[in-house]
Structure formats: C-alpha cells, structure tokens
Specification:
binds fe (iii) ion, 9-stranded antiparallel sheet, 25 strands, single chain, mainly beta
Length: 293
C-alpha cells in the first residue's frame, strides 16, 4: 500500500464569472494551476442575492466537460439544443461540451443561499470534437456509502473502493475515468479509499478541518490540495468534522491551449472555435441528452 500525501496547495482566490457571480477559484486560477485532466474548480457560496442573481447568461463551451454540483439553491440550465434542466440541492449536471454548446445557467431564487461547485474536466484530442451531450443527475440517484464510523460519501462519478466494499456512481465509462466523491466526516473520524496509481488526485475542503495521509498534513480550507502518487487516499477530520471533495482522474498528457470557455490542443483550434462561435455554428450543433436511470 502506498498512501498518497499532500504535495501542493492551490489556494482559492476571489473571482467573478458569468454576469458577475462571485465565487472562489482554486484550480484554474492560472494556467499553472491545473491538475491534468482537471482544468478548474469554482466554489460558489453566498447568502447575498447580489452575489449570484446575475447568473451565467448564454455563453459557449468547446473541448471539455463541465460538472455542476449544487449544495444549496436552485439553478435552471438551458442550452442551444433546446434542453432545459433544473438543478436543486444535491443535484448534478454533467455536461460534455465537446464540439460545442451555448447555454445559460440562471438562479431560480431571489433570496437565500446559493452554494455549489463547477468543475471543468478536460477531454482528450480525439474526443474534443464529438457531439455535445449532457445529463442531469437527481440527488436521489447519487448513491451514498456509509461506513461504521459515520463517514458518508456521495459517489457522483466512478467507483468508490473501500475495505468495506465498493459503491458505483451514476457516471462511468469516460476516458479520463473520473472519480468525484463528496466525503462527509464527523469529528475525528477518518476515511480511506483506493485510487489507482498514476491518476491525478486532489482534495477540496469546503467545511471544517482535515488532514491528509500518514503525515497528517493539514488541508487548508477552500483550497485544492494536490496529492502525490500512490494507491490510497486517507483523510482525517478535526474536532469540528469536515466535508471534502475528492477528485481523481486519468491524466491526458496533451498540450492545452485555453481561451476563456474554449479548451483545445492548438492555437489554430482555438481560432476555429472562436470563428465557429461567431458564425453561429456552435449554437446550431446538436446536443444529446443522456438520461441516467
Ligand atoms: Fe457554462
């Protein structure tokens, strides 16, 4: 067994996206702050409607996947393929933008808390131009693994492998083989899971305090903690308990050229993406809706 340890911390910075939604960006805050295949992680969390009401009006994406995980609040998604979807607490939207999509993500509330995450997951060159697809995953369809010590894990993507058994999430079969777990630890409990060697792994503590690995290195609050290679991830919660996202995926190892919402391999492909957006070609491309049963 090779436990992974905390190797690098990418602090989150205050950022604003869409029409002015305030958020914390850790991964993706700069081109050097990526963790292949993960491009970006934004956390939005506010009780002040002024921070989120403007939402994310129509905008394009090409070349990667966006994953929205709501904790609190209500957002409505609408895309150029004519699809709409509502995201409420605990719901996930997994959107494979690939060749391209134009969509909006708008708050459906004028008061209260809006809280959640958006992750950007890269696609390999051979999949960047496949047709766009998306799936809405209801909170009720996301399995929760519960251990004897009270640790609960929502398995959004991939398979959670623990000594007590395995739990498969609704998203699987992607080439980056992502694992997306929301780990909820009561005070002074620990969580341990196997993650294949060679996969990139990072953690994001969004509540409480936690330490990582056998050395118990502290995982800073609201920061992406990138782990060293190994086959096991171990997290221990402090006295107040903790909630930690665990993301793992197979690195792609290809060059990345990003221009805002377009992530391709070369500058020429970015220029093509801009041209295709301006000509309306991205907005006209079909979007496949995948139903997750
Ligand atoms: Fe978007």
């Amino acid at each position: 067994m090779t436990p992974r340890s905390l190797q690098r911390v990418i602090a989150s910075v205050a950022a604003s996206d869409g029409a002015g939604v305030k958020l914390r960006r850790s991964l993706g805050a700069s081109p050097l702050a990526r963790h292949d295949p993960f491009l970006m992680l934004d956390e939005f969390y506010s009780d002040d409607p002024d921070d989120y009401l403007a939402g994310f009006p129509a905008h394009p994406h090409r070349g990667f996947e966006t994953v929205t995980y709501m904790l609190d609040g209500h957002m409505r998604h609408r895309d150029s393929g004519g699809n709409t979807g509502d995201l409420g607490p605990g719901d996930v939207q997994w959107m494979t933008a690939a060749r391209g999509i134009v969509h909006s993500e708008m708050p459906q509330q004028t008061a209260g808390r809006m809280r959640g995450f958006q992750l950007w997951l890269n696609l390999p060159a051979k999949e960047k131009m496949k047709p766009a697809a998306y799936r809405d995953i209801a909170a009720a369809d996301i399995p929760v693994a519960e251990a004897a010590n009270g640790v609960r894990v929502k398995v959004i993507a991939g398979t959670l492998e623990q000594s007590g058994g395995t739990t498969a999430g609704p998203i699987h079969g992607l080439s980056t083989d992502p694992r997306y777990f929301d780990v909820m630890l009561p005070a002074r409990t620990s969580f341990e899971a196997s993650v294949p060697e060679g996969y990139s792994v990072f953690l994001y503590a969004y509540e409480g305090e936690a330490t990582v690995g056998d050395e118990r290195k502290p995982l800073p609050y609201r920061a992406a903690g990138l782990l060293s290679d190994g086959d096991t991830v171990r997290i221990e919660a402090g006295g107040a308990g903790a909630r930690v996202l665990l993301l793992a995926g197979k690195p792609i190892g290809e060059p990345i050229v990003q221009y805002g919402p377009f992530v391709m391999n070369t500058r020429e492909e970015i220029e093509q993406a801009i041209a295709d957006y301006q000509s309306g070609a991205i907005a006209k491309a079909p979007v496949r809706r995948i139903r997750t049963a």
